[in-house]
Amino acid sequence: MIIELDMSSSTPIYVQLRNQIVKGIGKGELKTGEKLPTVRQLASDAGVNTMTVNKAYQILKNEGFIRTDRRLGAFVSESIADDTDFTEKLESELELLSAEACLTGMSREEFLSMCDKLYSQMKPCTA
């Protein structure tokens, strides 16, 4: 999986890293149980500070997308459980995206079609 960061974006680098790793897991580019690069290796490859990668990994761990072992490193979680916090976060984000789509003139059908297209690209979800 290739990480591409936009250094001029208003989105913090650690959030971009987190989002790209989640997308990589969702699309099947990162497999269950797969070892992730070390913090130092990813920081070097991406050209960012190790604290930035560490923060992204910590968020991913807290969200249940990865697991860490001090001796062995970080791995894609075997099971990512749905919980109330995630459902509330997802609903809130979808509400905002729906409002933005509506306000910019996108029809309900276009919005749902886009959601369906993107969701179908996620490998674990379509298998």
Automatic annotation (TrEMBL):
<dbReference type="InterPro" id="IPR036390">
    <property type="entry name" value="WH_DNA-bd_sf"/>
</dbReference>
<keyword id="KW-0238">DNA-binding</keyword>
<protein>
    <submittedName>
        <fullName>Transcriptional regulator, GntR family</fullName>
    </submittedName>
</protein>
<dbReference type="GO" id="GO:0003677">
    <property type="term" value="F:DNA binding"/>
</dbReference>
<dbReference type="InterPro" id="IPR036388">
    <property type="entry name" value="WH-like_DNA-bd_sf"/>
</dbReference>
<dbReference type="GO" id="GO:0003700">
    <property type="term" value="F:DNA-binding transcription factor activity"/>
</dbReference>
<feature type="domain" description="HTH gntR-type">
    <location>
        <begin position="11"/>
        <end position="79"/>
    </location>
</feature>
<keyword id="KW-0804">Transcription</keyword>
<keyword id="KW-0805">Transcription regulation</keyword>
<dbReference type="InterPro" id="IPR000524">
    <property type="entry name" value="Tscrpt_reg_HTH_GntR"/>
</dbReference>
<dbReference type="Pfam" id="PF00392">
    <property type="entry name" value="GntR"/>
</dbReference>
